[in-house]
Specification:
Length: 281
């Protein structure tokens, strides 16, 4: 595997804007409700029970449905940008047998566009509304999805589908654990976020130095970190629901950013597993 293939196949760009996402939206997205990860833990665990709380069930289903639609849109856009030749040729430099050899100028712009969108939102969305957070969610998901066609150019289709299935099963189990556990995961979550920062730094180092074996270590750690964040963010969403107290505008914003949290967890978990399990074209 050459250095170029290692960089694009492990999807480092997603890690970068995931790091920005954690820094901006974990603390500020719910600022209009004075929400933060620590304060939300004041809600008694025995209240956060979906089996007896129809409101919580409806809120969580709204988050999952929006996330699932985001994944579906991403899959469609990834297919178009990798298999529809007029589009693929404007984004990627391809070998005669259809493998990825590089990026065009437009492809490079698309590759880093999600990071730019995150940075813009950091300064431009001080008080997000249901409408603005919804537009941001779909715009970001669309941009990410359009850039994910490179997976189908680097890995064979069978590997992509098999890894997606493994990721979906793992994600479902981890999210269910985060939802049902009575254990407070806030301390564990703080540790994971610190690990995410280290992961981003290590990815930046690897982008320039291409150290032998570091990509494998990064991918392995990435699987564990995003597996833990999936459980942590799911529990955090439960606490968010009760802290918001049913205020509809805030609930709509929380649904959008909650779906974005889980979407990014899924995408990162998928690409790290693909880096470990995938068969290259």
């Amino acid at each position: 595997m050459n250095a170029f293939e290692g960089d694009c196949a492990t999807g480092q760009d997603t890690r970068y804007f995931e790091g920005v996402h954690r820094g901006r939206f974990s603390s500020r997205a719910y600022s209009m409700n004075d929400f933060n990860r620590g304060y939300a833990r004041s809600i008694p665990a025995d209240r956060a029970d979906m089996s007896v709380d129809a409101g919580l069930r409806s809120f969580m289903l709204g988050v999952y449905n929006k996330m699932a639609l985001g994944l579906l849109l991403s899959a469609v856009l990834a297919f178009v940008t990798s298999y529809y030749q007029p589009v693929a040729s404007t984004l990627y430099v391809l070998t005669p047998d259809g493998r990825l050899a590089g990026f065009t100028l437009l492809g490079t712009v698309l590759r880093f566009a999600p990071l730019a969108m995150m940075l813009f939102a950091m300064f431009g969305m001080k008080n997000p509304t249901a409408r603005s957070s919804g537009i941001f969610y779909w715009a970001l998901v669309s941009t990410i999805g359009a850039g994910l066609g490179l997976w189908l150019l680097v890995y064979n289709v069978q590997s992509v589908f098999a890894t997606f299935l493994v990721t979906a099963i793992a994600f479902g189990g981890l999210s269910l654990f985060g939802y049902t556990t009575k254990k407070d995961l806030s301390g564990f979550g703080s540790f994971l976020i610190m690990g995410l920062i280290g992961l981003v730094i290590a990815s930046l180092v690897q982008m320039f130095l291409h150290l032998p074996g570091l990509s494998f270590i990064i991918s392995l750690l990435g699987v564990f970190i995003f597996a833990g964040l999936t459980a942590y963010d799911t529990q955090n969403l439960k606490m968010t629901y009760y802290q918001l107290g049913g205020e509809q505008q805030s609930m709509a914003v929380a649904t959008n950013y909650g779906a974005l949290n889980l979407y990014l967890n899924f995408i990162n978990l998928f690409q790290f597993l693909l880096s470990l399990m995938g068969g290259r074209r």
